[in-house]
Specification:
The structure holds two protein chains of two kinds.
Chain A: E1 2-4, H1 5-9, H2 20-29, E2 33-39, E3 46-58, E4 64-71, E5 82-86, E6 96-100, E7 105-106, E8 110-111, E9 115-117, E10 120-122, E11 125-126, H3 145-149, E12 171-176, H4 187-198, H5 205-212, E13 223-226, E14 237-246, H6 256-264, H7 272-284, E15 288-292, E16 300-304, E17 310-312, E18 318-320, E19 326-330, E20 334-338, E21 342-343, E22 356-363, H8 365-374, H9 380-387, H10 394-409, E23 412-421, E24 429-431, H11 435-440, H12 446-456, E25 459-461, E26 468-471, H13 482-493, H14 513-527, E27 531-532, E28 538-539, H15 541-546, E29 571-572, H16 576-589, E30 595-602, H17 622-631, E31 637-644, E32 646-648, E33 657-658, H18 661-674, E34 680-684, E35 689-698, E36 704-711, H19 713-718, E37 726-731, H20 732-739, E38 754-763, H21 768-779, E39 783-792, E40 801-810, H22 819-837, E41 840-841
Parallel strand pairs in A: 13-16, 27-30
Antiparallel strand pairs in A: 1-12, 2-12, 3-4, 3-6, 4-5, 6-11, 7-8, 9-10, 14-22, 14-23, 15-22, 16-19, 17-18, 19-20, 20-21, 24-26, 25-26, 28-29, 30-31, 31-37, 32-33, 34-35, 35-36, 36-37, 38-40, 38-41, 39-40
Helix pairs in contact in A: 2-4, 5-10, 6-7, 7-10, 8-9, 12-13, 14-18, 14-20, 21-22
Chain B: H1 10-13, H2 18-34, H3 38-49, H4 54-61, H5 67-106, H6 126-140, E1 144-145, E2 151-153, H7 154-157, H8 168-171, E3 185-187, H9 193-202, E4 206-215, E5 227-237, H10 242-257, E6 263-267, E7 273-282, E8 301-310, H11 312-317, E9 326-333, H12 334-342, H13 349-352, H14 355-359
Parallel strand pairs in B: 1-4
Antiparallel strand pairs in B: 2-3, 4-5, 5-9, 6-7, 7-8, 8-9
The chains are: A alpha+beta, B alpha+beta.
The structure holds zinc ion.
Domain Aminoacyl-transfer RNA synthetases class-II family profile (chain B): 130-339
EC number (chain B): 6.1.1.20
Keywords (chain B): Aminoacyl-tRNA synthetase, ATP-binding, Cytoplasm, Ligase, Magnesium, Metal-binding, Nucleotide-binding, Protein biosynthesis
Chain lengths: 844, 365
Amino acid sequence: MRVPIEWLREYVDVPAGATGLQVAADLVKIGLEEEAIHGGGITGPLVVGRVLTKEPEEQKNGKVINWCSVDVGDANGTGEPQGIVCGAHNFDAGDTVVVVLPGAVLPGGFAISARKTYGHLSAGMICAADELGLPDDGSHGIILLPQRLGVEASDLTPGQDALPLLGLDRETVEVNVTPDRGYCFSIRGVAREYGHSTGARFTDPVLDLNSRAPEANASGYPVRVDDDAPLRGNVGCDRYVARIVRGVDPAAPVPAWLSQAVTEAGMRSISLPVDITNYVMLGLGQPLHAFDLATLGEEIVVRRARAGEKITTLDDVERTLFAEDLLITDGGERPLAIAGVMGGAESEVSDTTSDILIEAAHFDPVSIARSARRHRLSSEASKRFERGVDPAIAAAAAQLAVDLLVEYGGGRVDDGVTDLDTVVPAAPIAFDPQQPTRLVGVSYTDDEVEATLTAVGCVVERVEGARWNVTAPSWRPDLTTGPDLVEEVARLRGYDQIPSILARPVAGRGLTASQRYRRTVANALAAQGLSEIISLPFVSDELHTKLRYGADDTRRSTVRLSNPLSDEAPLLRTSVLSTMLESLKRNIARGFKDVGLFELGLVVAGPAGTAPTERVGVHPTPEVLAAIRDAVPVQPRHVAWVMTGDGERKGWWGEGRSSDWSDAVATALGIGRVLGVQLEVAQADVAPFHPGRCAQIMLPDGSVIGHAGELHPKVLTTLGLPPRVVAGELDLDALSAFAERPGVAEPIATYPQAHSDVALVVDSGVTAAVVEDALHRGGGENLESLALFDIYEGEQVGEGKKSLAYRLFFRSPERTLTTEEVNVARDAAVREVDKAVGASLRGA
Amino acid sequence: MSGPNTNYDPVEVSALDPEVVESNVTVALSAIAAANSLEELKDARLAHAGDKSPLALANREIGALPPTAKAEAGKRVGQARGRVGQAIKERQAELEAERDERILTEEAVDVTTATTLRRPVGGRHPVEMMQQLMVDLMVGMGWEVAEGPEVEAEWFVFDALNFDEDHPARQMQDTFYLDPADGGLVMRTHTSPVQARSMLERGVPLYIVAPGKAYRTDELDATHLPVFHQLEGLAVDKGITMAHLKGTLDHLATQLFGEGITTRLRPNYFPFTEPSAEMDLRCFVCRGEDPACRTCGGTGWIEWGGCGMVHENVLRACGVDPSEYSGFAFGMGVERALMFRTGASDMREMIEGDVRFDAQFGLEV
Ligand SMILES: [Zn+2]
């Protein structure tokens, strides 16, 4: 809402000389936040000038300029006429104009100085309206001051300061109006708040207008409200004032003060009737609609739309109406307007209009909000109606419009007055006067509470020792409960009165295990040289295809946004890795060849249901609550990582080593290890991984919690990534749940360690994991650990075979093992491998 | 091995002559002193103290002496060999020390070459670290951390929080709706639904913070992210007032941004709080003392987040009796807090995943 300070002054005593900045500071204190301050953009000498001479000079390019001498009084310091070159022609010698002198700065930071041009020294500029940031007054060029201001030239003195004459010393404060304060979408409302903030005297313009507005009478234009489907039990229109002004000249000039007021408040000056309706809306907060009476029949009927009905609105768009839309119709048939949202083109005031019907109505906020939303049509009127317009000002607003149409449009007002009023007065709030003290933490006396609420406009009925009856004023439909009144008390007494007291919670449990584990995992990955990222979690079916997910891959089933930012990514991710590859690509494009990234985040891992809902302020039944919860898809937290290039770089120290599939698997195992979980690995073939270089990662209980390995070469080429990128992803929630038990400390054996090497020849298809399992089983409890130190395939072991060489480490917690004991255990381990997968000792 | 000499031979016995012994010692000592390396010393030892050295040979002759001469000759030769042995030992120690010194000198490297890193540098995401820092401050005061899903039921995101479906505030949330749009699911627009979940699951009294991601249909630019992080706080207990809200925010602000950085409450509107307030932060650049400050526009205050007393309808929807309990809630942007704390100025950098963004900070912000 733009609030011109001069307009504000009409309703509240703003101190002389108050700047926009000061007014904005006063308004922010009571909750109207500053958005911007407009105007006040001209500094330096802008004065009245009288053109003494004007000599046209034709230039070589055919253009004609005027070499003028202008009397600017003493404003130039010499009293001599000022020489100015001017390119415009809509003036003559003898005219009174506006002159900007060297040293001034015009809007946009345009500094004026004397400069040589067209063979003359031009010391200043004769001004046009747009150069000063003013609306055009019809002159389409140089401002002719007496005409613009509607005064005699003799009233103006050369050298006189023109800033106040043109209102250029005026400032406009733009404030953000929160959705609960619809009444502040008017100068009247802001003025009231300014009064609350500063104590300045507020004069409600509605009081005087109401006193002048005539009573409704039988000769008023017939209006009927016929709402057969009220929303939430509220009839769509509970007040409709109609007034008629005849013989209006729609082309009558708009007085300068009116166009200035409307323009400063941020709307365009269009025509006298339009400007008047906008002026009343901006001033009082009551949206008006002006109908061309000649286009109306016998009666206005306010009713709900019929499905499929159509109307062409003022913006020349034909709109199909919804059954819930509230309409203003001609005799119940032809739609004239979508009530409170936008008028129809057919009944609009045009340049042939003579008789005007002014509508000042009050519509149900819910009805207007829904219509505006359905038609994606947020108008100045709907913005106000959906936030709540004061239903008590309709007659006053219509009166103001009538007055102005008569005064400036040459109209005569009809005696007939329509005022259909079924407004239900606000019910009193049973208010505990201690509640402000209890909620705010400042001790307010009963008298303070009463005085504050009264200042806001409430009617307070004090009941000693019991709850008070507080009735909110008509312009505050947002005040319906005790806490609403508490805010008024706190706000007007000042939020700066609230002391600062630290809340002392009951002792907490600290972080949960899962919250701690997340940090541990992330810190470990960072320490390993990976960078944490946060990627946008939006994906697409196309990405899933690029990642080679099969048609029935469960990761394809996820939730879809109905209004995605981009149609190219309408789905929520089911894999964290899937959204990380874009960041990997970006890093590579920025010149980083060796990159490791990781991310922790939620994924969708289950179907979404349909969630029921419940009205605000109502505690749902256990059944409804369960249905709400169950509709939300399961969203576990995953951790994913991706690496490309050298994990260890080459450099002056020698060769580097690129990260390979085993690093990706080792990362998975490392994540388990930092949480004290010995993860297991098995061969797998899952997208987006290389079918032969993909490990599935399992909890010790055998459940699969993720995969790691090298990405499929086709995935990499499709996504434009370099070869041999490796990656992995784990369900961190599953891992955390397993890890969430205190570790058990085993005694540390101190007897010497013994080792023995074996080279086992097995079929090529046998995995190390299977061999190691068997070695552990057969090696007995003294087999402390083992390490694979060589893999050999070749003619020495024969076609289809490979040799896996292990060093087995033995230790007993009770004694030093003898060579004999070690050999027995080793042989038992080897036998177990043979039993499991068929193995011979290499060279045996 | 030399056996006892049964044949007396006067020529050979001259090796035991005191002068000869002394001259052999002199020769040996000068050879030892002349040895300039451990190798030369080894040669000198073989020549002058080895089995074939004159003194060793002389020692062998002692056995052939008449018993009366044995003792004196033995003593003489023994002392001579002792002197040579001692000289060798000393020279050995000197030369070893020199060698050790030389090796250490030779092994010296240019340690400044180690600044070229062999492994890529990792790091935590600053937004995560900022969130962690804020959470830790709250946990340190006894608050607990609560979490919830990002795809969330509309009831939790809006209705439970007193956002009426027809209220303009609900339209102003720029919500991502899930398909079908009437299925009652959205991307949470704030972490506030965790308020409702926590009250329902844990009951009251309750002191929780809810960190996490929130979603708005904002196009990505320097100051807007469609996915951002929020820290929501909720305290519900008997006797909670706005003063407790102010105290808690002041404490958090001071801890995060430094001594003297307090908050200011000014009236605002949020559907889930009443009274509602906007919390401004004392400008951490000028502390309200520079009218030309670009960070705060000269006002001395920076907008930080929304807060207020929990609306009675929220308490009711969550099964809490507003006549018995009151509460306060606040919500603040983590990205914004990070910008305040570190001077980061372009929010796009926070979701691009450029490794350099993390590398500036390591594991702390
Ligand atoms: Zn500042």
